[in-house]
Amino acid sequence: MIYLDNAATTKMYKEAIEAEIDVAENFYANSSSIHSFGMESENLIKETKKIFAKVINAKENEIYFTKGASESNNIVISSFASLENMAITTSIEHSSVFDAFNNYKYKKVIYLKNDKYGFIDLEDLKNKLNDNIKLVSIIYVNNEIGTIQDIEKISKIIKDYDENICLHIDATQALGKIDCNVAKLSCDIMSFSAHKFHGPKGVGGLYISNKFIAKIKPIIYGGRQQVISSGTDNHQAIYAAGVAIKKQTVDKEYAYIQKLNSYLREKINSHISDSYIISPENDSSPYILDVAFKNIKAEVLVHYLEDSEIYVSSGSACSKGEDNRILRAIDLDKAYIDGAIRFSFSSYISFEDLDKTADVLKSGIEMIREFM
User: Fold this and answer.
1) How much is the pLDDT for 320?
2) Cβ distance 90 to 120 under 8 Å?
3) Order of strands across the sheet with 288-293?
4) CA 65 – CA 50 distance, rounded (Å)
5) What number is the average pLDDT over the span 307-312?
6) What is the per-residue pLDDT for 323?
7) What dotted CATH number matches 252-371?
8) For residues 363 and 367, what is the distance between their CA atoms, to the nearest angstrom?
9) DSSP bridge partners of 275
């Protein structure tokens, strides 16, 4: 099997699986209980907060765990929603941000311009800031095409205008892969999800600077165990997430992933006609390679690859079955828009895997074009 759909979800590290099982078996008390057994569970959460805080250069009390990045994004966007407030975002956000803005009531939501690679127009940002803007929400690494936004420049523009505007970044495809030093980025809030860096599903979180925590409200009411997220803490999954992020950052796999990305880019460019690499060469995450093929139906190609146990995706797993909003937003040529495939990498992939993928991809495209 060749699994090239890591932007959808990653295989859990063995160490993370073992950690989660150990906690589930031996430290299963409710972390909100005041007895000593419950306090052991709570201590595991505190220990995990230390790990995440170190990775992103934050304070431990600025780390909050949620049920995933979608909940995290909704918490932020709902917290600033008001008929008196305005917000700025982009048309290339993850669906959990884009749909949240469509469902929570703002005075106005302003969408920034972007170029054909997905980079936002910084002059447009400058021009669209006004005194009613309370929140700017920008995806750090685009989940479909891999574009990395210059968050430092974005933050400077925003804070030069008004330091009280909150900058939220969706770092779901960034954390554990590229630099997420929140002090350097100068962001106020950051979302993340454990299953994108070889941790368990169903757990994610938020970095929230102490300056903005008073403005953040849960979307589910109840015990508020994590202050912003109600419900019994899934402390075994939280702890496993900490084990995973620690391993991924220690392993320093970035250079290897870069080589994989470049290798497959070259294979496609040199062996497959009428292909267009959407992901930019510079300022792009090497973990994602989005490629479009002329006169191809992506869904057909995905299933052709699947027959050889090669697993990729056509766009984001969260936009399955929908017209691709992100590819429209970057104004991709209509001849290519139906044939976009996302390859996403992990350290479990080898160069031999990519050789096979390129061969099967080429034969599949030739066959599909012959019958279209």
Assistant:
1) 46
2) yes
3) 275-277, 288-293, 340-344
4) 12
5) 98
6) 65
7) 3.90.1150.10
8) 6
9) 293
Active site (annotated) includes residue 318? yes
Question: What is the rounded distance in angstroms from the CA atom of residue 193 to the CA atom of residue 172?
Answer: 6
User: Please, what CATH class does the domain formed by 14-250 belong to?
Assistant: alpha beta
The DSSP element (H or E) to which 3 belongs, if any, is strand 2-3
CATH 3.40.640.10 in the chain: give the residue spans: 14-250
Q: Where are the alpha helices (H) located in the chain, listed in sequence order?
A: 14-26, 36-56, 69-79, 95-103, 122-128, 151-161, 182-185, 235-251, 254-271, 298-306, 325-329, 334-337, 351-371
Instruction: Tell me which of 166, 180, 187, 318 is the catalytic residue.
Output: 318
With cut-offs at 50, 70 and 90, classify the pLDDT of residue 370.
Answer: confident
Tell me, what's the pLDDT at 321?
39
Task: Give the β-pairing of 133-139 and 86-90.
Answer: parallel
Contact call for residues 193 and 181 (beta carbons, < 8 A): no
pLDDT of residue 220: 83
Contacts of residue 228, defined as CB under 8 A and 6 or more positions apart, other chains included, come to 64, 66, 75, 206, 208, 216, 217, 218
Average pLDDT over the chain, rounded to whole? 94
Which residue ranges does the chain devote to CATH 3.90.1150.10? 252-371
**According to the model, what pLDDT value does residue 322 have?**
47
**Whether residue 264 has pLDDT greater than 70:** yes
